[in-house]
Amino acid sequence: MQLLIRFFSFILIILLIGLYFNKEDRSHQQQHITKQKIKHAKKVNLKNMSAKNQTQDIKKRRQPAGTKTHKQSREIIGQHKGSNKNTIPMNNKVNHKWKELYKKAFFQNLDKSNQVKDFKITQKRSLIKVKQGSGQYLEHVLISYTKPNGQPFSFEALIDSQTGSVVQSWNQTRYEIKKRYKIKNASQYNYQK
Amino acid sequence: MLFFLISACNDITDIGTQSHSRAQTSNLTGTNKAYIYPDNPVALNGKTISYADFAGHLVARFITADNYLEANCNFTQYSPDIFSSSQNIPFTDTTANKCVRVLNDSKTTTEILSPKNESWAFQTGSDEFYQVNTFYHIKSLYDRFLESLSFAHEYVHLKSNLTIPPATKYNLVDTQSYLLTKQGLSQTLTAYSKCALESNAYFSPAEDILCFGHDGKNFLLVQDPSVIYHEVGHALVKAMMNQRNVTSGIDPMTSSHYFQATTYQSDLGEIFYDEAGAINEAIADYFSYYMNKRTKVAEFAFNKIIGGYRPLAEDEEVHSADVSTAPGERLSYPDFVHYDPLNPDKNIEDIHYSSAIISHYFVALTKSFKQTCSYPTTNSDEIHKKATDYVMLLINETLAEIGDLTAKGSDLFSEYATLNTAQKNVYFTNLNPEQSFLWTHVVNPPSFRRFFQIFGKNIYHYISSGLCPNFNLDDSEQLLDEYGLLLFKSYEDRGNGLNSQSFSANLYSLYTGESVFSGKNFMPFVLNTQVNENNRKKSILISKNFIKLDEESIAYIIDGQNDIKNILAELTFEGENVSTTQGIAGAEYNNNNIKISPGEVIALSLNLFNNSNSVMGGVQFLANDWDHMKLNDGSQLYTNTSTNMNGLNTSKISGAIASHSPCIIDDFPLASEGGVKDTSTTTPGNCSYITKTNTQIDSSEVVSGVTYPKYDLDAPQPICIVQYSDEDETKWVSQDFYRNYALNLEDKDCLNNPSMSANNFNPNECLIRFLPGASQAVLGKINPQSTWAETIRGESSDFTFDAGQLTLMEVNKWIRPGTKFNCRFRVRFSNCSDCYDDFQTGDPITSLSDYSDFEYAGHNPYKVINFQFTVLD
User: Fold this and answer.
1) Considering only alpha carbons, which residue of chain B is nearest residue A175?
2) Which residues in B lie closer than 8 A to residue A186 (C-beta atoms)?
3) Which of B106, B152, B340, B608 has a CA positioned 20 to 30 A from the CA of residue B100?
């Protein structure tokens, strides 16, 4: 028994030592990489460059601004008079997976017997809705699909860009003859106080 | 509703021989014409017929000069002539997109039809033949409607006495909202004449598509033009409802052009039974009469599908009930809400049946105009045109006001049309732009009462006081009353919620942007026009005190897993927001014991009892948030969330967490039970003060990228409160209070928690929450001394529910069994005598008028029904 304890203790110590050095190594590598980055940074004397080259050079050197900001590509609606959409404080963020979040919530209520086909989310507009001085990112979409009974259906919706939840839906398809789900023998469901 | 396919006894659809057809085709070369059927086979042949026999009835008509089966629609708008006060100058807009296009079906490979040698004549009975005919009838209706709209526009803006603010958009050419529009751009209506849809039809307002189905053999719905007119009628209703939802003008602050379309669009009618949907069906049926002067709809198509036809007048032989056009024997509301002429013994709640009351009224009104108004002709076709123009003017004015999501109601109140900055926050209808969609679809929807109050107002000001003085106010009220539609006491001509007198100084010239036309000012009335009570004989109004919960059984609760899953699926398919809070509540907890248990999703229908001696119509019960709670301290506004707690603890924000108490309404809850009361109706934050904006959560405070949400002082709150007991007392408290002090629940364990609602999280719905897409229900009618169930069951042994009569409620799984809740539903009905007007105030101006729009955020226009229940294991 004592031998076993000593053996496992030894193994444990070896492992701990190994972990320690591994961490040091990574840290060292990072420092090495960082140092390398710094080493490769190029100093440029702007005074000796033409304005055009300066601009081009600055563009090359500075960190990319990224693709168009969320705000720039968005239409502004609501109480937006006098608001600058680039500076307005936002009370939500854009989750790039908002479509997946919406889809998950939509299909949450559907099981194998209630599946839809050709489900499609068509993005119509990306919006910033301004209310009382702050903005909310929203997506205006067209949702279309074929119901289990084969009937095509569509509607428009406003989706929160962060949570993927529906703010409002409208313009639902109107069928002339509509078969509804009926709860039969309803009198059995009476609830007494 | 059952329907079945009737196989044609005779499969003939080729009417003539091929050589005859070829001869016909060649006759029309170079004319851009085609042979069309002017009506359905039954009407053309004068007898019931089961196949599309057009032999001998086809006539040559112009189709389009376009290279494809599509066309522009031209709208003519009038403006004042500076040289003549009696003539106006027409201007025809030709810049809009194509207004209509017809294809055979929706397959991506289907190509749009082109003419052959400038002839649209194709073999009779072929797919091409039906495409061309569909196009012809749609275009005919569009052209006729635009004529009516042009007439209406000129009359209300340039020829009327301007005693009420005109709702018809003034600058329709600028906004191009005279037909279908989206985000300010005119839209093409695409129609499929042989859609892959079995003997059914649909209109998609999201995609502006009309689909006409067929039976897979020889029957196509488009063989009946009255069906085409009906379906296009739905598209025109959408156009009229959204006419005002595009603004084009000059911004008075910047003097630059302003153009904005509302994000949402208005619908007339929700997905299940409601009175707005019935009105939509009635208007759609009326378009058939408008075009062909007949008081039957779909005699051919209906006969093929379900037998019979839909009548538009009491003297039609299909009527089985004891109705006629004699006084006192019309199809009246609410008695005939469930009436199906083909099955008079059944009680069927469907918008196509209750619509009959309205469609019959529209036709009767048109006939009255034909008989009493003066026309410059004796030609019956011309008189029909004029009389239907008058009715279309009224419908357009009414729908434009009801569907207005800018909440302006008239260009007279638009700062962009009048260049008057003082009009910025002036709203005439639907509360304000932020809440207008909720107001006109849920809180104050176009019930029969609301629609006919506005319609009646328009009759008085444009017909009786202008176009047809022989049809006076008494005539109008008596006809409305014949149909049980005199459901209001005043016409609200002064405006609901604002004093239109203060706008009389607006010069008409300023309003229209025209520089002349002096002396044409807006001339609003001082007092609202009152209904002559002597005219109210059939329209029975009932006090809201007569509606209550049944004493034996207060509700119906459905908690079977399959039923709930199917209802949720159905509502999801209909585009409703019924997402449940995963992990906190869901159908997987449902146990089908007809009790309310933790974790369940419950379908609930209040079992309302009509304790009066008259029928109640259009009963609506609402479970949406409303202003019934009061902040305990008006300076403590932060919602109780972990983010706000952290912000306060780290001094990023200053203030305190909000807490609410329930206001005492109808003596509940008592003060000793936690209820609060006050008297000043002018102090914001008070129970007696109703929110003017319906704003709930203010997310404007953002510090270092973090949002700290706060309640508005008079924020509407979720309807359920909970009973809390400790050793000292038992009282009714907010759900937030209870989840903190009794359950110690974190935000993440709440219903609609921040993962779903983000900064809109309201802990006052942590425990019981009504799903937004199922927070109201509408019942067609309730008979006297009966419940709705007893009314609908009639002679049957039982009855059924569908989602339209149910609200859906989540029950948090963390609730301890034995916890007691009280949910404050608001209930009202269309023929309610004391739901809509505040005749009690004593103020000579406001006491003769309806409640202002903001009052619909409170309890005054409703009967508050307290539904109490205990959560059981």
Assistant:
1) B202
2) 556, 789, 798-801
3) B152
